[in-house]
């Protein structure tokens, strides 16, 4: 369908290519070369007439065909923010020549969108209609045109071509050249026409009841087909579908294009407008421009001419809210197609292996290699498979929990489980138990024969599965490059998509280790296991206890010192229970050990549930940021207020359980250069702390297509709706550049 | 297909958000170096009206005005009234030597700030060469836009907006017009 819809353009493109290769032959006087640079003309101009003869009282299409060197362009009737409109001065004996019928122009953006211009690249035929007087003298009538234009690539060259030829005015039948006729028709088809004639209805709404000099405003332009046919943007980039005319004292920029449900197939363009502080000298109360639409797979070009209410300076105007003017949240489900989200998820999962959150588990896996590498190949692969299964199963479980929570009406984000103190407590318990296992306090399982082999089987497949689980659990508080978009996509999608994306992340996360296990002859690259392995195991156990320190810190920050102490006490008791279990195991009292194991597990679960963490809330100042950055708490209102006061704003979203956030905060945000740049440029710094659940922060993250922290936004007061979104992994230079771009150095207040 | 293009386009606009300063508000401060290496900052000229002229000798619009001595003459006339005239070249490929050569050819005396990184240009939202800004003695931006009302250079006696804006500023009144559409080549910023 899409391919079919594109066919007309493709044909037009091919046709243009062939046409450009063979421009029509014209008399020597009707051909000119202009804008010569380094001995090369950048523009060829040809004066074309649709027919060599015309009857008195009839109209004849005449035109100037400009053929440009690759990369150069000439300008439309509104050249935009630089450039100069192309001009044609016609003189045709016995005829009145109408205005140029401008084909729909292209949009050129320079300097990262700072400068927008409108015009034509490659080739354009600018047609005018010459209407011969009924009493036009028969015989040869001279046709003269003086074409002047500015042609720009990077540099600009003014060009001029004075072209001349003649047409025969006679009563004989006009015989248009079929090729020329086709050329005129092709270009005429790209000339916008009145909306009525095309069966299109146009409507514009403005954020102000009237625009006064100096006002900034938003506008929305809607196009609907009278027959209800769906309309799409008729340009490759939808924001280029509307090209505004020059409106005295008003600058317009198209900021978006969408097909909202309330327009039922119609196209809605969002515009930002700024009125000059001078009162317009002439009438400037129309919104004029041209619109390119695609309807039923074909192009439709529409002239836009709608009222634009103006008011003198100081007049009372009111703000008009309208759903048309609301900036739709950038919908991540639209931002990337599904297959791309899956690829991003895979890449994000891979990168997660390098994020600080996952490093302890990764270390565990790396150090486990010597142990498993020297086993039989099947065993190694079984290990890889178990780890893989562990990762995927946990991801699946996580996806289902997310989907279930959402079905129950609770919106959560990536890493949401760390907002739950009980979860933090449970993970600490798991890590402690795991560490004790590595210390050799007990072995997993009850089977005495398996236990006898425990030394040889230091890392069972079961443990690999468990390590997969742990990797996922520890990976989730981190967002990462690529991952942010993928999980943003997942969290805004239906349940099956969530599952698919989460599984893809899991595949990416597990991939490096699994691939290593598949390498044949792995054993040759790693040292043979031996008694030193026992020491290594103990070392890894301490690494896991280190991770516990982090979790305890989170607990302290999110639920207070009381909860932290309770958790520590619980962990000590748990460790004692596990030690007792291990002692029974070593005494080979299998049945007693089994009973003891089960009761310890039960007691541990009960104890966990009884931990006084859920209700605990920290004292307000406990959350004072220890980084040098600080900042007031985030709220949408605080952002708006600061921007309205002309201050640039830096917003960062963080959480204590987000190690990536903490790394950025310590390595980058607390850099003195950053602090002084923020101060010098008058930045207001706001911090959204997502350590605990917070619906407003979740919603703000979702607005930017994210479902997790960190998120860094730099707002410029000049563009309050369009903050710069910085990547998840910051560098000082990148951050400084973003600050500079948003706010030039603040004037010294002396 | 179209829908994600829309979203992509919207995202690219998000990245490119900069805006011009406002008439009647303090003009953006700048610290610049001219072709001789001398430093200029807006604060240095407190108490004097300042004209900023965005320039690029390779631009035919600029060349036309220098051929007609539009800038040189006006700068000299205003200079006699203690008005500071500074040219700014934000062309990414421009060097101080280029400026010196151009200055020698044209024989003007005012300094040209070397803004090859475009920071001053972007702070002012300069889009074309020429693009003119008039700042009053208190550092308030009073005029921005075209040098005159003759984009195509076809008018024998164009109305010079900068001349009238400075006259208004010196007389303590508000320029009219104060906010016009500049014309010319685009500023060749480093992309």
Q: What labels would you give this structure?
A:
heterodimer; A: 750 residues; alpha+beta; five-stranded mixed beta sheet; 18 helices; B: alpha/beta; two-stranded antiparallel ribbon; 6 helices; 9 strands; globular
Largest sheet of chain B: 5 strands, mixed
- Provide the gyration radius of chain B in Å: 17 Å
Largest sheet strand order of chain B? 5-4-3-7-8
Name the shape of chain B in a single word: globular
Helix amount of chain B: 25-40%
Distance between the termini of chain A: 65 Å
H/E topology pattern of chain B: HEEEHHEHEHEEEHE
Secondary structure: helix percent of chain A: 25-40%
Mean pLDDT of chain B: 86
Overall structural class of chain B, as computed from helix and strand content, comes to alpha/beta
Q: Based on DSSP secondary structure assignment, what is the total number of beta strands of chain A?
A: 26
Low-confidence stretches of chain B: 1-19
Structural class of chain A: alpha+beta
Cα-to-Cα separation, first versus last residue of chain B:
28 Å
- The counted number of beta strands of chain B is 9
CA gyration radius of chain A, whole angstroms: 35 Å
Number of helices of chain B: 6
Shape of chain A: elongated
Question: Treating each run of at least 4 consecutive H or I residues as one helix, how many helices of chain A?
Answer: 18
Strand content of chain A: 15-25%
Strand content of chain B: 15-25%
Protein described:
The complex is a heterodimer of chains A (750) and B (191). By secondary structure, chain A is an alpha+beta fold. Chain A has 18 helices and 26 strands. Chain A has a 5-stranded antiparallel beta sheet with strand order 1-2-4-10-7. In chain A, strands 13, 16, 17, 20 and 21 form a 5-stranded mixed beta sheet that branches. A 5-stranded mixed beta sheet of chain A has the order 22-24-23-25-26, with helices on both faces. In chain A, strand 20 (286-295) and strand 21 (298-307) form a beta hairpin. The model of chain A is unreliable at 1-21, 330-334, 446-458 and 618-628 (pLDDT under 50). Chain B is of the alpha/beta class and 191 residues long. Chain B has 6 helices and 9 strands; from the N terminus they run H-E-E-E-H-H-E-H-E-H-E-E-E-H-E. Chain B has helices at residues 2-15, 60-67, 70-79, 96-106, 119-124, 161-170; strands at residues 31-33, 39-41, 50-54, 84-89, 112-114, 128-129, 131-135, 141-145, 185-186. Chain B has a 5-stranded mixed beta sheet with strand order 5-4-3-7-8. Chain B has a two-stranded antiparallel ribbon with strand order 1-2. Chain B has a two-stranded antiparallel sheet with strand order 6-9. The two termini of chain B are 28 Å apart. In chain B, 49% of the residues are buried. Classes of the chains: A alpha+beta (750), B alpha/beta (191). Chains A and B meet through strand 11, strand 12 and strand 18 of A and helix 1, helix 5 and strand 9 of B.
């Amino acid at each position: 369908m899409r391919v079919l819809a594109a066919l007309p353009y493709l044909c037009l493109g091919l046709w243009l290519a062939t046409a450009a290769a063979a421009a029509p032959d014209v008399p020597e006087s009707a051909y000119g070369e202009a804008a010569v640079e380094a001995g090369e003309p950048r523009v060829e101009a040809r004066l074309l007439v649709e027919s060599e003869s015309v009857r008195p009282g009839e109209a004849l299409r005449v035109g100037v065909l400009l053929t440009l060197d690759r990369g150069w362009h000439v300008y439309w009737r509104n050249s935009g923010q630089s450039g100069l409109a192309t001009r044609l001065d016609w003189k045709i004996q016995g005829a009145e020549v109408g205005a140029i019928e401008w084909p729909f122009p292209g949009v050129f953006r320079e300097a990262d969108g700072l400068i927008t211009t409108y015009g034509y690249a490659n080739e354009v035929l600018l047609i005018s209609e010459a209407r011969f007087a009924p009493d036009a003298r028969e015989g040869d009538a001279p046709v003269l045109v003086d074409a002047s234009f500015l042609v720009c690539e990077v540099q600009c060259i003014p060009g001029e071509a004075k072209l001349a030829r003649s047409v025969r005015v006679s009563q004989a039948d006009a015989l248009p050249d079929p090729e020329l006729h086709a050329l005129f028709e092709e270009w005429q088809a790209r000339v916008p026409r009145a909306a009525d004639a095309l069966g299109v209805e146009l409507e514009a709404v403005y954020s102000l009841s009237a625009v006064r000099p100096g006002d900034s405003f938003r506008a929305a332009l809607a196009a609907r087909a009278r027959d209800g046919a769906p309309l799409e943007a008729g340009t490759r980039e939808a924001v280029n579908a509307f090209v505004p005319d020059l409106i005295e004292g008003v600058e317009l920029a198209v900021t978006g294009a969408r097909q909202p449900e309330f327009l039922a197939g119609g196209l809605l363009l969002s515009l930002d407008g700024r009125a000059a502080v001078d009162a317009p000298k002439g009438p400037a109360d129309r919104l004029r421009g041209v619109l390119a639409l695609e309807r039923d797979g074909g192009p439709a070009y529409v002239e836009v001419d709608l009222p634009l209410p103006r008011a003198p300076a100081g007049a009372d105007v009111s703000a008009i809210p309208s759903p048309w003017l609301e900036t739709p949240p950038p919908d991540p489900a639209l931002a990337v197609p599904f297959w791309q989200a899956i690829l991003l998820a895979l890449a994000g999962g891979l990168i997660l292996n390098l994020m600080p959150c996952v490093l302890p588990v990764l270390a565990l896996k790396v150090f486990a290699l010597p142990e498993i590498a020297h086993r039989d190949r099947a065993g190694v692969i079984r290990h890889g498979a178990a780890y893989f299964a562990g990762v995927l199963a946990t991801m699946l479980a996580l996806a289902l929990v997310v989907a279930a929570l959402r079905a129950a009406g609770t919106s959560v984000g990536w890493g949401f489980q760390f907002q739950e103190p009980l979860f933090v407590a449970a993970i600490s318990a798991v890590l402690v138990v795991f560490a004790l296992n590595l210390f050799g306090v007990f072995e997993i399982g009850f089977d005495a024969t398996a236990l006898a082999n425990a030394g040889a089987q230091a890392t069972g497949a079961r443990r690999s599965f468990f390590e997969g689980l742990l990797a996922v659990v520890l990976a989730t508080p981190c967002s990462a490059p690529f991952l942010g978009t993928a999980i943003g996509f997942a969290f805004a999608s239906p349940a099956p998509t969530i599952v698919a994306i989460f599984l893809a992340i899991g595949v990416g996360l597990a991939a490096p280790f699994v691939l290593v296990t598949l390498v044949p002859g792995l054993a040759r690259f790693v040292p043979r296991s031996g008694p030193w392995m026992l020491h290594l195991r103990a070392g890894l156990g301490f690494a896991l206890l280190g991770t516990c320190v982090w979790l305890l810190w989170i607990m302290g920050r999110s639920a207070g010192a009381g909860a932290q102490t309770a958790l520590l006490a619980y962990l000590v008791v748990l460790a004692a229970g596990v030690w007792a279990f291990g002692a029974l195991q070593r005494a080979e009292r299998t049945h007693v050990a089994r009973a003891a194991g089960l009761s310890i597990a039960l007691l541990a679960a009960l104890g966990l549930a009884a931990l006084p963490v859920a209700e605990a809330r920290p004292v307000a100042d406990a959350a004072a940021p220890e980084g040098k950055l600080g900042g007031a708490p985030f709220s949408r209102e605080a952002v708006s207020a600061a921007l309205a006061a002309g201050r640039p704003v830096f917003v960062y979203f963080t959480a204590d359980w987000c190690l990536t956030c903490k790394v950025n905060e310590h390595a980058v945000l607390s850099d003195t250069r950053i602090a002084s740049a923020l101060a010098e440029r008058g930045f207001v710094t706001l911090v959204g702390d997502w350590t605990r659940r917070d619906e407003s922060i979740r919603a703000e993250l979702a607005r930017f297509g994210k479902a997790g922290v960190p998120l860094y936004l730099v707002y410029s007061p000049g563009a309050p709706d369009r903050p710069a979104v910085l990547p998840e992994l910051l560098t000082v230079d990148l951050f400084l550049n973003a600050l500079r771009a948003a706010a030039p150095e603040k004037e010294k207040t002396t | 297909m179209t829908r994600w293009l829309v979203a992509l386009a919207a995202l690219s606009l998000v990245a490119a958000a900069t805006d011009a300063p406002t008439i009647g508000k303090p003009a953006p401060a700048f610290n610049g170096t001219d072709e001789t290496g001398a430093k200029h900052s807006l604060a240095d000229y407190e108490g004097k009206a300042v004209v900023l002229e965005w320039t690029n000798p390779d631009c035919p619009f600029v060349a036309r005005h220098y051929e007609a001595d539009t800038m040189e003459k006006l700068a000299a006339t205003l200079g006699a009234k203690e008005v500071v005239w500074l040219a700014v070249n934000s062309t990414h490929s421009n060097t101080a030597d280029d400026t010196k050569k151009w200055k020698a050819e044209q024989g003007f005396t005012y300094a040209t700030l070397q803004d090859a990184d475009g920071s001053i240009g972007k702070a002012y939202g300069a889009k074309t060469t020429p693009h003119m800004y008039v700042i009053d003695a208190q550092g308030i931006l009073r005029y921005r836009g075209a040098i005159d009302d003759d984009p195509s250079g076809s008018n024998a006696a164009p109305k010079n907006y900068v001349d009238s804006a400075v006259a208004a500023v010196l007389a303590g009144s508000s320029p009219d017009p104060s906010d016009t559409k500049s014309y010319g080549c685009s500023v060749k910023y480093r992309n």
